[in-house]
Design a protein that fits this description.
- By secondary structure, the protein is α+β, with helices and mostly antiparallel strands.
- The protein is built from 10 helices and 8 strands.
- It has helices at 13-20, 47-57, 68-75, 79-91, 108-121, 123-138, 180-188, 191-205, 209-226, 268-292, and strands spanning 95-98, 103-106, 141-148, 151-158, 173-175, 229-232, 239-248, 253-262.
- β3 and β4 (151-158) form a beta hairpin.
- α1 (13-20) packs across α9 (209-226) and α6 (123-138) packs antiparallel against α10 (268-292).
- The longest helix has 25 residues, at 268-292.
- The chain is globular and about 55 Å long.
């Protein structure tokens, strides 16, 4: 019997942690990856490596090619340094250089890393059949996502048999603070790590943060009580969804699963009474199968 490399905690653990610390603060822990300038006085921090990874992360889902000038603008890394980094990353296969355009695209090296993450964790092969079954049963889109800074990135998307309502594919990004899948991810974090993430989100949203934080706190309280988070017509006025976290390796890694569709069809009542319990059960089933090492 195949045993996966990711071992989850018990499905009820996040709610207990959350109830103890929605507003916990820990200035020593950041919940999301820092930028290339965050090394401070840490002598173990390799700045050149961090900057190279920042360049790879600068490519969004809609970016086919980026030049050194645009990469410098997005990352804040000086252009001469960017030129050296892109040359090195191209030699290593993480970028591909298009000479007629004088720009770069992601290479096979970057793609291989992503595929290795998905295959090594084991969660994709465990979650996909369960996700697809729920998508067929509810005629809604079901997705699995991981965090990247202030956004969630879809790793797997399962569509219903009917007309597609949410035309989102793997690689699509949703805002962490205003989407159900992002709120559920936050709910699954340990309180200290969550506090670091919330601090980063506050810096990102600035003046908009108080209103966003109020709704986010309500979602976290809802999770502590019901085991799922919802968002009705928030990050996109046409879309509603509900989500639950999948907590792996004792909390070291947290993913999130959501189910969603058109806001005109999925009212808050439907999300709370029907889809919420079902996505919570889905997350618990995924954690349970990984816990038992079943593929």
């Amino acid at each position: 019997m195949k045993r996966t490399t990711s071992i989850p905690v018990r499905p009820d653990a996040p709610a207990a942690m959350l109830a103890a610390g929605v507003h916990a603060a820990s200035p020593g822990m950041a919940g999301m990856a820092g930028t290339a300038g965050d090394e401070g006085d840490d002598r173990s921090f390799v700045t050149a490596l961090a900057r190279g990874l920042e360049l790879l992360r600068a490519f969004g889902p809609d970016d086919d090619y980026l030049g050194n000038a645009e990469l410098s603008r997005r990352t804040g890394i000086p252009r001469p340094t960017v030129s050296r980094l892109t040359y090195t990353l191209t030699r290593l296969g993480y970028l591909v250089y298009a000479e007629p355009l004088e720009k770069y695209r992601l290479g096979q090296g970057a793609m291989v890393l992503g595929h290795r993450y998905l295959s090594n964790s084991g969660i994709r092969e465990v979650a996909q059949p369960l996700m697809q079954s729920l998508a067929f049963a509810t005629d809604c889109t079901v997705a699995l996502a991981a965090s990247d800074r202030h956004e969630m990135v879809y790793l797997e998307v399962c569509q219903p048999r009917g007309a597609l309502v949410m035309r989102l594919a793997p690689g699509s990004r949703l805002p962490t603070a205003t989407s159900a899948i992002g709120r559920a991810w936050l709910a699954g974090l340990e309180p200290a790590r969550r506090a670091g993430v919330l601090a980063e989100l506050e810096r990102h949203y600035q003046a908009r943060w108080p209103g966003i934080r109020s709704k986010l706190d309500r979602a976290l309280r809802d999770y502590a009580r019901r085991g799922f988070c919802l968002a009705h017509a928030e990050w996109d006025r046409t879309v509603s969804g509900v989500a639950a976290p999948v907590v792996l390796e004792g909390g070291a890694e947290v993913l999130s699963i959501n189910i969603g569709g058109a806001a005109t069809r999925l009212s808050p009542e439907i999300l709370e009474a029907n889809l919420g319990p079902r996505v919570r059960q889905l997350a618990e089933a995924v954690q349970g199968r990984l816990w038992r090492g079943q593929g």
